[in-house]
Amino acid sequence: MSTTLADYTDDDPLAAPRNELAARLSRLAPTDGNHDTAIEQLHVSRATDTTQCKPTVYEPAIFVVAQGRKQALLDGEPYFYDPLHYLVVSVTLPVGGQIIEASAEKPFLGLRLSVDPRDVSALMLETDTRAVAANASIDRGLYSARSTAPLLDAVLRLLRLLDAPQDTAVLAPLAIREIYYRVLVGELGDRLRELATADSRADRVSRAIRILRTRYTESLRIDELAEAACMSASALHHHFKAVTAMSPLQFQKHLRLHEARRLMLALGLEANAAAHRVGYESASQFSREYKRLFGAPPKQEIDRLREAEIAA
Asked: What residue stretch is flagged as signal peptide (predicted)?
């Protein structure tokens, strides 16, 4: 998308809800980084500087931004989310993430609402949101779309509930369902419906992704994965790449490398131990593939991350 933050002004129709959203997120995220909230599915973030593009794994979620700008890169294609656009990730996806507009005066302020596709499927059954054909074409498992007044209104009502903890347990699920609904009926809601429609091609790919997500340490054969997804091996390979921009084996490799990185950074494991833990038999292969993804050998990259944390 070519729209920039200079393309809207404070007198546009969504200025008031955006300003309130920014104020609430600023209070919920007083420091840089990601912050949990009293609503389990809701997380908020703040950044006072731009970042380099970093490999990361996005789980199914809806991302809404009040201030600043961020992009997700999948197969070299950018998906922007900012005060004008929200981002939807409908399946687990290894992507590149980068904050491209942020400053101390106007920090990046955004929120992430985790999505369970099963909840979206249940909502589709209870409403008139149109399901897609089982043989519909498959698009990427993420997209950005124009923010709307009804969507921002639902998001704000969810945030306001954090000021009324006695109401949260009852009303938060209703606000979350409305957010799902607004996305489903939005301009690109068919993308989300496609992934949540039982036994569609995209749903079968989602099954394969869930298997890889939980069994990434195992040596899975493509035939075994295809059988679990009720597809031929060639069909799974083709449609999996349409959703994720990578093959199932490449996807599994990314999951392994990201988990190894987490184990080294959070638990202090040595590279060899982390490699073995996530399913690598060859330490040298692990080091080569780690460097290819993260730009440096394991120890060097982890040391750099720790130094950056200390400096911050």
From this structure: none
Gap between the Cα atoms of 37 and 44, Å rounded: 8
Residues of the chain under the 70 pLDDT cut: 1-11, 128-138, 195, 198, 310-312
Are 15 and 66 within 8 A, CB to CB?
no
d(CA 256, CA 290) in angstroms, rounded, equals 10
Other CB atoms within a 10 A radius of the CB of residue 164 amount to 9
Q: Residue 278 in 3-state DSSP?
A: coil
Dihedral over Cα of 289, 295, 296, 301: its sign: negative
Instruction: Please state at what angle helix 149-160 crosses helix 165-184, rounded to 10 degrees.
Output: 160
Looking at the DSSP bridge assignments, the partners of residue 109 are 46, 67
State which H helix or E strand residue 192 sits in: helix 189-196
**Three-state DSSP class for 88?**
strand
Spatial separation of the C-alpha atoms in residues 259 and 34, rounded to whole Å: 19
| Burial (Cβ within 10 Å: 0-12, 13-18, ≥19) of residue 284 | exposed
Amino acid identity, position 6: A
The alpha-carbon radius of gyration of the chain (Å, integer) is 20
Token code pair at residue 283? 């330490």
pLDDT, position 308: 75
Instruction: Select from 94, 96, 101 the least CA-distant residue to 70.
Output: 101
| Short-list 44, 51, 50, 37, CA closest to 23 | 44
Q: What is the pLDDT of residue 6?
A: 46
Q: Is the pTM of this model over 0.85?
A: yes
